[in-house]
Specification:
By secondary structure, the chain is mainly alpha-helical. It folds into 2 domains: about 100 residues, no CATH class; about 90 residues, no CATH class. Helices cover about 55% and strands about 5% of the residues. The strands form 2 sheets. Strands 1-2 form a two-stranded antiparallel sheet. β1 and β2 form a beta hairpin. The C terminus is likely disordered.
């Protein structure tokens, strides 16, 4: 039987926050939150504000390109005001808790073990989300645009499972003790440069 953490990656818990139904947390959602410098994806300990919550909910309720088009509307101010008026702003502490829970669930990683021979060198330059997109495109034949809407947690399972089949790592049956996205990134940055080169299929060149 499939482990619960795997099932949750392909059948995530549905969330409706501030009256908007959220999509499964995707690679594109994380990129957009990073671009807008929301507290939720900051490497520093920053308390999320109401603006962070509203922006996060709007981002995660849309597809990647849909949100970009939303920001480019000529009457953006009016649309933001209209969207704000439609939000359910009651019981705000619970809304903050739910959105944090949504992010925790969406970034939860399987526990992995990487052989020492792969940990010897540190990756140079390539951001983690980009290397994940390269895996989806080069190995799993996902289209470039589709990678932005690919659920982040499912992408981890799909790419880690592929690498396990190739003998590059081992997925343990339990969950990581601290399945935080930033800690996952820090661990995976220890994998050698050849990992990215193999994914991209371009020997000797950096992605």
């Amino acid at each position: 039987m499939s482990p619960p953490e795997y099932l949750q990656s392909v059948i995530p818990t549905p969330y409706t926050i501030l009256g908007r139904r959220l999509r499964p947390l995707s690679i594109g959602h994380i990129l957009l939150m990073q671009f807008q410098e929301l507290a939720y994806v900051s490497e520093e300990e920053i308390k999320a504000t109401m603006d962070d919550l509203i922006a996060g909910v709007l981002i995660c309720s849309m597809r990647f390109r849909e949100y970009q088009e939303f920001l480019q509307l000529e009457d953006l101010g009016h649309e933001l005001k209209r969207a704000g008026q439609a939000l359910d702003l009651t019981e705000l502490p619970e809304k903050f808790r739910l959105f944090a829970e949504y992010l925790d669930q969406g970034t939860e990683s399987p526990e992995i073990e990487i052989p020492e021979t792969v940990q010897n060198n540190i990756l140079l330059g390539t951001p983690w989300l980009q290397s994940l997109r390269i895996c989806l495109m080069a190995k799993l034949h996902v289209g470039p645009e589709e990678t932005f809407d690919y659920p982040y947690r499912q992408a981890l399972w799909d790419c880690f499972s592929l690498r396990e089949a190739e003998g590059k790592l081992t997925i343990n049956s339990g969950q990581a003790d601290t399945p935080d996205m930033l800690e996952t990134i820090e661990t995976l940055q220890k994998m050698n440069k050849a990992f990215i080169e193999q994914l991209a299929g371009i020997p000797g060149k950096r992605v």
